[in-house]
Amino acid sequence: MARAHWGCCPWLVLLCACAWGHPKPADLGGQDVRNCSTNPPYLPVTVVNTTVSLTALRQQMQTQNLSAYIIPDTDAHMNEYIGQHDERRAWITGFTGSAGTAVVTMKKAAVWTDSRYWTQAERQMDCNWELHKEVGTTPIVTWLLTEIPAGGCVGFDPFLLSIDTWESYNLALQGSNRQLVSITTNLVDLVWGSERPPVPNQPIYALQEAFTGSTWQEKVSGVRSQMQKHQKAPTAVLLSALEETAWLFNLRASDIPYNPFFYSYTLLTDSSIRLFANKSRFSSEILSYLNSSCTGPMCVQIEDYSQVRDSIQAYALGDVRIWIGTSYTMYGIYEVIPKEKLVTDTYSPVMMTKAVKNSKEQALLKASHVRDAVAVIRYLVWLEKNVPKGTVDEFSGAELVDKFRGEEQFSSGPSFETISASGLNAALAHYSPTKELNRKLSSDEMYLLDSGGQYWDGTTDITRTVHWGTPSAFQKEAYTRVLIGNIDLSRLIFPAATSGRMVEAFARRALWDAGLNYGHGTGHGIGNFLCVHEWPVGFQSNNIAMAKGMFTSIEPGYYKDGEFGIRLEDVALVVEAKTKYPGSYLTFEVVSFVPYDRNLIDVSLLSPEHLQYLNRYYQTIREKVGPELQRRQLLEEFKWLQQHTEPLAARAPDTASWASMLVVSTLAILIWSV
Amino acid sequence: MARAHWGCCPWLVLLCACAWGHPKPADLGGQDVRNCSTNPPYLPVTVVNTTVSLTALRQQMQTQNLSAYIIPDTDAHMNEYIGQHDERRAWITGFTGSAGTAVVTMKKAAVWTDSRYWTQAERQMDCNWELHKEVGTTPIVTWLLTEIPAGGCVGFDPFLLSIDTWESYNLALQGSNRQLVSITTNLVDLVWGSERPPVPNQPIYALQEAFTGSTWQEKVSGVRSQMQKHQKAPTAVLLSALEETAWLFNLRASDIPYNPFFYSYTLLTDSSIRLFANKSRFSSEILSYLNSSCTGPMCVQIEDYSQVRDSIQAYALGDVRIWIGTSYTMYGIYEVIPKEKLVTDTYSPVMMTKAVKNSKEQALLKASHVRDAVAVIRYLVWLEKNVPKGTVDEFSGAELVDKFRGEEQFSSGPSFETISASGLNAALAHYSPTKELNRKLSSDEMYLLDSGGQYWDGTTDITRTVHWGTPSAFQKEAYTRVLIGNIDLSRLIFPAATSGRMVEAFARRALWDAGLNYGHGTGHGIGNFLCVHEWPVGFQSNNIAMAKGMFTSIEPGYYKDGEFGIRLEDVALVVEAKTKYPGSYLTFEVVSFVPYDRNLIDVSLLSPEHLQYLNRYYQTIREKVGPELQRRQLLEEFKWLQQHTEPLAARAPDTASWASMLVVSTLAILIWSV
Prior knowledge:
The structure is a homodimer. Chain A is of the alpha+beta class.
C-alpha cells in the first residue's frame, strides 16, 4: 500500500504528498464549494458553522494571553491513523482531510493544506476560515508575523508538536519578537467539552505466546543490554510511539483505527519498568502477566497515562540520562528533560530491534501471508465470475475482500482502508470508494486492489492489478514494466547494510527506459500484528540500512491520469544471498503469494532471467498456497491457482523470425567451428 | 580518479577515507617507526625534531591565554590541494599526510588521523606527539576535556575551520566550561616566521575568449539576476572558494598544485564587484579587462586579500543580506556577519551555475577530451611495446604520460598526481609512485593508470586498466563486471533532477551479483580548466540532482587486496534522453575516448545490450580520435586504435552447445508453428 502516511507515524506526510506530484483529489460530489466573496457568502450544505466554537476558543486564548493558537493535525503519538477524540483540527475547522494545520488569531482563522485537500476544504469550511494552499511551517510563520503584533504570544499544545516541528517554528520566529508558548491544557478540548468523543477504553489484552517472537521479559532485557552498551550510558529509554509499548509487552488493544494499539508511554529504566496507561483497562490476569504487584527491575508498574510528563520531569531530576527516538517524540516530553540528560537517536532501540524480525517472528509473518493469499485469491476468483455480470462495484468489492480476510484464522480486521479502484480511479493517489461514491467494476477496465489484514501472527499488505477483458497494448506494456521493476528489485543482490534509497531505482529502471515513472515511494516496513507501515524500514532516504530479518513491501506502479492505475505490491523478507565469491550480501524473499495477472503480461518484454524468476515464484506460490486451498476444499480456487501459475514460456516469435534465427545460428556454428 | 579528496574542496575527506574501508597504506620504505616507550626513545631518521617549534608555539599560546590550540589540515579556502605555505600541520608536527588534525596543550601535543596515515605518522613524528587513531571532532574534544582545566580556552584560526567544523567543536564543548576562542593571527605562522614558504605571487591571467563559455560581465549579470529572484533578496554574494572567483572572472593562475587558481575572495553586491586578491599580481591589461578604474556596478574593484574580513564586517553594518555557500565558507568570514544578515545555501549561485556547462563549455570540454585521448593512447601504445622489455616502472610511466599530455595543444599540466600502479599497488586507495619507491611494469600483472590533464579548454580525468599477458579468469571476470557497471550506469535513462545517489548502484550491480564491490564513490563533477573534482556534481548523497549540461566521471572499480586493482573511469555529459513516451528524461554521453582493454573482457558475461553499447562506443572513438591521429601522422597509434575498436561479437560457445541450441530452436519452431 502506497499512501500519504508512510509508516505508522505520519511524519512523512508532506514528503509523500509531494512525491505524488499533487494528484487530483477524488471526486467528492462535484465542485459545490463555498464562495466567501459574495454577500451573503455562498455556503454548500457540507459546510460546518464554526462561529460559536471559534468565539469560545478565542476566549480561552484571551485567558492565556495568546495572540495566536496553533492546531496541528497530529495526536500525541504521531499515529498514522488518529482517534476521533484527537480530531481537533477537523472539529474546530469543519475540514476533515487527514493533513492540514489550523491557526487562529483574535481576528482571523486559517488552514494550510496540500493540493489533495483544497476542494474538500472549500466544501467543508465556512467563511471564518482562510484557506492557504501551502504546507510546512514557513508560510504559517510568515502569515503570523503579519497578523499578530510584536510582543505577541503563539500558543501550542506541546504534545501535538514533534521536536522537529517545534524547532522549525522556533527557528522561524527567532528575532521576530513573537514568542512560542507551550500550554499543556489543549484549548480546543476545553471548547469541545462534553461533545468530544470519549477516549477508547476497551480492555488491553496480551498476545498468546504462540504469536510472539520473545517474551516481554526477554525484550526488556535486550533493550537494557543496549542501554549498557551505548557509549552515553543512558539510564532509561522513553517509548512514546504506541507501537513501541505494544511490541515491548506483547500487548494489544484497538484504540486506533487499523492499528492494534492503546494509548501509552513506557519509561524503561535500568531498575524499573513504568508503563503509563489507563489503569482500569488492565484485567487482573494482565496485571499478573506484567508482574505489576512488585517493584523490582522486572516488575511493570502501571502509572496513569496523564502522569507521564510529570513523572519524567521528576525522574529527570536525578543523575539520569534518558534515551529517546527524536523522530516521533513530542515536544511536551522533550521540553521537561534537561538537554544534558537527553540521549538522542532518530529511532529508539525498540524501533531498531523491532525492525529485525527473529526467526519465530519471520515464520509468523510468513504464515499470515499464506492465509492472506487465500482470502485475496478467493476474491479474485469471485471477481472473475461476477464482474462480467455487472453487479460488482468498488465499494461492495472492498467489503467482500475485507469479509474474506475476516474469515481467515487469527483475523483482526483490515490493516488499512481497502483501496478498491476501477479504471481512472486507480490513478488517484488516495482513493477509497464509499457506499455513496464508487465505480462499477467492468471487463473493459483495469482494477487495482491494495489491501491488507491484521492477524494475530502478522500484518499483511498486497496490491494486485487485473483486467478481465482485452487490455490495450500500452496497458500491457506499462503493467509488464511495473512487473519487471518488482522483479528487478526483488531479485537484486546487494551488500549488507545497503540503504533502501540506494537500490530503489531498480524498481523504476524498466519504466524509466520508456519514459514512464511513478510518484510514490517503493516500499515500507511491516509488522507482526503491528503497523502496516512500520518504520524505520523501507526505501526512502530516512529509512535505515537493510538487514537480514527485515520485512519490506516492494511496490512499483504506474498511473495514467484519467485512465488507469497499476501497482504490484509484495511483501519481502531480507535474507542472506549466496554469491559466487564469499561476502556479506543480501537479497529479498517475497512472502506475498498471489499470482500476477497473466492477461496483462507482455512476455516479449521479459528477459530469460525475468521468466526464470517468475516461474520460480509461481512454483513457490503453488507450494505454499496450493495445499492450504486443498485442505480447505477450495477446489475452484485451487484450479484457478494452477492455471495462473503455469510456467510462462518465452514469447513465440513468428516462424519467419525463428527461421532467420536458425540461419544465423547455423552460420555462427559454421563460422566459429572452422 | 577516485580519491580521498572528492571535489576541489576536501570537506569530504573522512567520508571517502571510510568508504575505502581502511586500506593499507602504501609501502613507505618498511616499518622503521618510532618507539617512544624505550629510553631513550627510538627515532627513525625520517622523524622531525619539533621541540623548539613546540616551545615557541606554547609561548604564543601563553600570550593569548590559551590552554590548547587547534591546527587543522585545511587552508582558508578548503582547497583539495594546498600550498606549501599552508602546510602548517605538517610543519609543526613533521607528519606530512594530507589528512590529520593536531592539537597542542601546554603539556601535550597530539595528532588525529585515519588508518591510511598511521605508519607514516609513526615514521615522521617525534615523541613530543601522541598519535590518535581516530577522526572527527568528538575524540579530539573528549581528549581536550581531560587535558585542559575547567575555564580553559581552546584557540583556533577561524580561517581554518569551516562553519560545520566550528559548530561541531562548539556543540561538543557546550556546557563543559571550556571556551572556543577565535584568533585571527595564526600562531603557527608566528613561530614559522621567515622559514615559512612565500605565498605564490605569479601573474594572474585572463583566459582567451575562445576558452570561456561567457564573459565575466555575463556571469556577473547572471548571478545578480539570481539574487533578485531569491525570495530572501540577498544584496550580495560572497565567494570564498577559489574556483568561484576564477570561474566568475575567467581568470587563472597557479597558486595551488593541479588547480589553476589564485588566492582570492569576491563580494559581488547588487551595485559593486569587489575582488580581494594581491593587487600587485594584476597587469594593467588585466586591470583594464576588469574595468577596475571605475566604480560602477560593472567595474571590478580590487581590494587586498588580507582585507576581506574587515571589508565584509564593514559591509554587513548596512541594510544588507549576504548570500554564502555554507559547505566551504570558513568560520572567519561567517562570524563577522550577523545571523539575520546571512542568506545561506549549501552552495553559492556561482557553484550551482558553474555545475551546468553551456553549449560552448560543453564543446570545449569535449575537445580537450579528444586531445587527452591522443596522449593516453600514445602512452598505451608505447607501453605495449616497452613493458615486455622490462624497462618501464610506475614512476617513469607516470612521467611519460604527463609528458605526452604536456605535448598536447593548450596543455597546462596534469590535473592531479598521476596514479600509475602495477599489480598489488593498484589495490591501494591513494597510491602514487615516487622516484625512489615504485614497481616495475610487467606482462604478468595488471596495470592501472588514473590520470588527467589541465587544458585551457577543459580538465580531464580517465582511468584505464590493462594486462599485456594472460590475465586469470578471475581478473577477466572482475574487469568485465566493472565494465558492465560502467556501461549500465552510462546507458541508464533516468528522470530529470534525479540525484546521483539514487542511480549509482547501477554501476555496482554486476559486481554485487558475484559478491564483489568497491569502496569508493562512483563519480564526481569536472570543470573547464578548473577542478578535476568539481562540486557539487556527482553520485554521493551530498551532490545535487543531475541536470542536462553537467559533466561527471563514472568510475566503478574492483580491488583485490595484495593482488590487483581495476578501475574504469570515463567522463560523461548529462544529456536529454529520447524515450518511447514523452517525458523529461536524461542519460549520459561518454566523452572519454580511450578503448577498454579487450584482453580483459570476458564477452560471455555481456548481454546483447552491453555489446551493442560497447560497439557503438568503439564507433564513436573511431570517429572522434581516428581523424586526429591521422591528422598528426600518428599512424602506429591509428592502427592500434582500429584494432582495439573492432566490433566485438557475442562469444562463440563451443560447438556442442551450439548444436544443442539448434535442436532447441528447431524444436521450438516445430512446437510453436503447429
